[in-house]
Design goal:
Blueprint (H helix, E strand, L loop, with lengths): L3 E6 L3 H13 L3 E7 L7 H4 L3 E2 L8 H11 L6 E10 L15 E5 L2 H4 L7 E10 L1 H14 L3 E4 L6 H4 L4 E4 L5 H4 L6 E11 L5 E5 L5 E4 L4 E4 L3 E2 L8 H14 L7 E25 L2 E11 L3 H23 L6
Parallel strand pairs: 1-2, 1-8, 2-7, 4-10, 8-15
Antiparallel strand pairs: 3-6, 4-6, 5-6, 9-12, 9-13, 9-14, 10-11, 11-12, 14-15
Helix pairs in contact: 1-5, 1-9, 3-9
Subcellular location: Peroxisome matrix
EC number: 1.4.3.1
Enzyme class: oxidoreductase
Length: 326
C-alpha cells in the first residue's frame, strides 16, 4: 500500500505550522512543503510577532492554543508589559480579550501623563514571538518529522494534482491568483527596526498604525495600514511619519539608530479561510484544504488554524484513501 501524499503550499508561519502538524500527526504520510520563499524572505519574518487576540469569529480558543505551545518553546517568546492608549475616552474599556492576556488593568493617571494626547489606556502583559528564530526552528522540526522541502513557485493547483492526494493551501496573498480569491487583498505595512535597548515596554496607539515593540535583538517601530497597496518598496515619507509619530509617544526614539527598514503585505480578507473543498483537477476531484487570509494575526492564529487544517486533512484522506494508515 503506497503512502498518502500531502503537499503544503507556503512557508510563512501558517504554512510551516500546518506542515509540522500534518507531518508529526500523520507519520505514514509523505508530506512536502513547497514554497517560492523561505525564511528569512517571508512576510512572517518581518512581522512584529505580537500575540494579541484577533477580532475574527471563533478565534478566542485559537489564541489559547498558541499560548500552550509557548510553555514548550521559551526560546522564541518574550513576555512584555504593554500599554494600549486611546485618544477617545469612550473606547471599549474592557474588551473580550481582557481575560486572555496577563494582568489586564486600566492605566493610572500617572501613567497616562506620559501621553498628553491620549485620554484612556489599558495595561497588560503579552507575548512577542521572535519570528526570525522561530520560523527556521519550525522548518527543522518539520524535517525531523520526515518532511520534504521543495523551493519553487506553485503556479496552479493543476500542476500539483497528479503528484499529491491532498493539497494544503497556505499561500497567503498568493491565493489571490492560485485559487482566484477576490476577497483577498493586501494591507501594506512598513516598519523600522531600531537599536534602543533601554526600551522595555510595548506602546501601542489604538489607531493600530503607531506602535513601539521591543524585542530580543532590536525594537520594531511602525507602522502603516495601507489597504489595497501592493508596493514593496520603502517609502521615505512613511519612514519620516513613523519616526515622528513614535517620537511623540517615546521621545528617546529620536536617538535610536535605524538598523533596517522593512515592508510587508498582510494577506487580508474579512475572515481567515480555513475550510476544505473538492476541486476538479486533471480529470479527478482533489481535496484542497485552505488555510490563509490571517491578515496581521498570522503569528497569533497560526498554530490553532494549523490544527484545524490537520483535522481537515484527516477527513480528506479518509475519503480519498480509506485504507490508508492515519
Amino acid at each position: 500500500m503506497r503512502r498518502a501524499r500531502v503537499v503544503v503550499v507556503g512557508a510563512g508561519v501558517v504554512g510551516l505550522s500546518s506542515a509540522v502538524c500534518v507531518a508529526e500527526a500523520l507519520p505514514f504520510c509523505s508530506v512536502t512543503l513547497l514554497a517560492e520563499k523561505f525564511s528569512p524572505h517571508t512576510t512572517s519574518d518581518g512581522a512584529a510577532g505580537i500575540l494579541f487576540p484577533a477580532e475574527f469569529p471563533g478565534t478566542r480558543n485559537l489564541f489559547k492554543l498558541f499560548l500552550k505551545t509557548i510553555i514548550l518553546h521559551p526560546l522564541f517568546f518574550l513576555l512584555f508589559s504593554s500599554w494600549q492608549i486611546f485618544k477617545d475616552a469612550s473606547a471599549d474599556k474592557k474588551p473580550f480579550w481582557s481575560e486572555l492576556v496577563i494582568g489586564f488593568r486600566f492605566m493610572t493617571d500617572s501613567e497616562l501623563k506620559r501621553f498628553p494626547d491620549h485620554k484612556f489606556g489599558q495595561a497588560f502583559t503579552t507575548i512577542k514571538c521572535e519570528c526570525s528564530s522561530y520560523l527556521p526552528w519550525l522548518e527543522k522540526r518539520f524535517r525531523r518529522a520526515g518532511g520534504q522541502v521543495e523551493q519553487r513557485k506553485a503556479n496552479s493547483l493543476q500542476e500539483l494534482s497528479n503528484s499529491y492526494d491532498v493539497i494544503v493551501n497556505c499561500s497567503g496573498l498568493g491565493s489571490k491568483l492560485l485559487v482566484g480569491d477576490n476577497e483577498l487583498h493586501p494591507i501594506r505595512g512598513q516598519v523600522l527596526k531600531v537599536e534602543a535597548p533601554w526600551l522595555h515596554h510595548f506602546i501601542k496607539d489604538a489607531d493600530r498604525k503607531t506602535y513601539i515593540y521591543p524585542g530580543m535583538h532590536c525594537v520594531t517601530i511602525g507602522g502603516t495600514r495601507q489597504e489595497g497597496d501592493w508596493r514593496l518598496e520603502v517609502d521615505e515619507g512613511d519612514t519620516k511619519s513613523i519616526l515622528e509619530r513614535c517620537g511623540r509617544l517615546e521621545p528617546s526614539i529620536g536617538k535610536a539608530k535605524v538598523l533596517d527598514e522593512w515592508v510587508g503585505l498582510r494577506p487580508s480578507r474579512r475572515n481567515p479561510r480555513v475550510e476544505r473543498e473538492a476541486v476538479q483537477l486533471q480529470g479527478r476531484r482533489v481535496p484542497v484544504v485552505h488555510n490563509y487570509g490571517h491578515g496581521a494575526s498570522g503569528v497569533t492564529l497560526a498554530w490553532g488554524t494549523a490544527l484545524d487544517a490537520l483535522g481537515l486533512v484527516r477527513q480528506s484522506l479518509h475519503e480519498v484513501l480509506p485504507q490508508a494508515k492515519l
